Task: structure prediction
Amino acid sequence: MKSYWVCIYEKIYNSEKLKEYAMKAKPAVEKYSGKFLVRGGKNRTNDGINSPRTVVVEFPDYDTAVACYDSPEYQEAHDILEGHVLRHHQIVESS
Result:
């Protein structure tokens, strides 16, 4: 069953660090057959926090989505964000 990373950015403090993160994260995601469905773009907040950026990544299954997040390749990219963004990241299995 397909699964998704859903990332809702609340604050972006350093856009350059976000770009650096994206350059490292993309190969890690692709290694685990992840497919970017949403990366930024026009949006409207209807409820909750106003988010400057939303990212949705599709994976073949839940275990692969978790393995990618926990991988050394992705964690190296993730560490770049430390102190530069505030975001909510979830792994969700489709029903």
